[in-house]
Amino acid sequence: MKSEEIAKLAGVSRSTVSRVVNNYKNVPKETRDKVMQVIEQYNYVPNTMARALAGKGTNTIGLFIVSVSDKKSHNRIYQNNYFAPFVDAVIDLANQSGYYVLVHTIYEKKDFLKITEAFSQKRIDGGIIIGTEKNTETINRLINADYPLVIIDYDFNEILNFNTQKKNVVVINSSDYEGTADALNYLISLGHKKIGFISGRTSTFSGKQRLKAYKDTIKKNNILINDDFILKGDFIKEKTRNSVQRLIDSKNLPTAILSSNDDMALVAMDVFESSGIKIPDDISIAGFDDVPFASQVHPALTTVRLPVYLMAEKAIEFLSIMIKKDTTVFTQFIVSTELVIRESCRELISD
Amino acid sequence: MKSEEIAKLAGVSRSTVSRVVNNYKNVPKETRDKVMQVIEQYNYVPNTMARALAGKGTNTIGLFIVSVSDKKSHNRIYQNNYFAPFVDAVIDLANQSGYYVLVHTIYEKKDFLKITEAFSQKRIDGGIIIGTEKNTETINRLINADYPLVIIDYDFNEILNFNTQKKNVVVINSSDYEGTADALNYLISLGHKKIGFISGRTSTFSGKQRLKAYKDTIKKNNILINDDFILKGDFIKEKTRNSVQRLIDSKNLPTAILSSNDDMALVAMDVFESSGIKIPDDISIAGFDDVPFASQVHPALTTVRLPVYLMAEKAIEFLSIMIKKDTTVFTQFIVSTELVIRESCRELISD
DNA sequence: GTGAAAGCGCTAACAG
DNA sequence: CTGTTAGCGCTTTCAC
User: Fold this and answer.
1) Lower CB count within 10 Å: N or C terminus of chain B?
2) Range of the structural domain that residue B202 is part of
């Protein structure tokens, strides 16, 4: 069923059918109704490929998940507690808004080409990029081409520096700095002074912010920073396991540890308990993200909640606005985190 | 950069460029090399929309997640421990094979149209359908249109009945019946005789099979089936919570319970423990699926592992074969489950 | 072997 | 208001 046939059946031309389909105003109600009836009767849906070729959008958005690492074994998304819920939420929300979603993973530098390709081939009307290690060059090319773009967890200043003209971009970040400070202040209020930190990948905006907030907050409270207490985790479980084990072997433990994310906090809990170190009795642990696991583990993990669903909602919302070209939007949107106190931290009773 | 420009630069016609791009044999190596060089130099990629319009495939597959329910509040995929890993695995694997993936959720009957639409609009070359409540009518229409299709968890006999001609379909199921029997036999070997069952949605093939296996196995072991011990869970957490609570209130507990999936088993554990009923001391519990949670909960859940990743691999593999049209494939593929014994079941010491 | 030309289904500028 | 016409970029007969 093509527009020509509908036209014939309705006794009009293809152009008129097109006008009706695209909701042009200059079609009399009578004609419109006549055409619409035939369209509905035959369940006609215009061919998207032809539409796209002729210059219209494709009604689909791209979701790119980048997880570039030096390692051979990549951190596959299906086993990542942070990506997975976001991905699924985006799909769900986009579909509800009538968009198709093209999802693509990026594990190597050359995969970035897939993003530009998807845009230049008109496969997508707009895109969302999430993940570690965003490629600045690619991002700038996309922005300069004025493709509607939403970037999750990215340094907005980088965009400001590279782009004099404001374009169609929105960056969505969370209050990583404040969230980290909140958690730390909570730990300090519990009487902790020897507070360790498991850092994430600092090539990530949030990873960088959380580490900075840790150092700043510790200093601000007149606590001496002990570099031995800053563990490298890089958001990778295996690496975290090793770092924590080394800390245990050093026989010099902090009384509390804040982790840059829950996945690493959970690993730490596991390693500590295997070594007979009880949580929260012997050491307090807090995380960041509030992944589903966090609340179901024993003891339940105290953590800083990242509103993943809200972030997905905002991403779709902004992208939708940009695609519809009602207005151009260039902004950073910051969602608030929230400290969720559970059972993994205890008050330090000073003698 | 379009084929015409490449043609000009290479000193040939668009047709020749097309032939080179599509790997036609009747192009002399010399010409091919000449064209290829220009293509690579300018990083030319043919426009997929135009290609699709002209009759070629789009190099993208569709992934449809159906979760139809009578309820208003749908069981969103992003919070479903069974769908999420499969979805993510499929995306990952498809991307690795060079496919783009279009993901779509289906929450209402009318959403099924999106599947046929995606195909008829040539948005996708093939599709994978997973989830509850598959719409037989839609599926038959798709099969008869000969669209490459992989269906997860579906009764193959339904397809055999409705389709005399063998078409391009493969159904991927797991050994639900055997897996259930394995778990039950394990429980029986532990000395349990009063074994309850939390059933899933019987509108699902796996849900039906698991229930059937439960009844058969219990009977086969000369144990009387107590209908009070068969709890309705329908793969829904809230429903499960209520069913379990009612069982507790009845004061007549089985000594062990097998759940149709882990999510419900986890809910049951939670409800029991809230009522002061210890696992596995007071009651043994086993699940099905082996979701990531299962191994990290305390006590770790004994369950039947569903090889989700393998299922995703097979789905892509078969779909790929069908799309390439090397051969037509019509078959059912059954992946094996495996009993994973952990800590949630204990031997019943008879006096 | 390779180019010319038609066509995939749709939109948009141009007339009327 | 509405039909006619010319593309969008590619594939594919059909000749040469």
Assistant:
1) C
2) 176-306
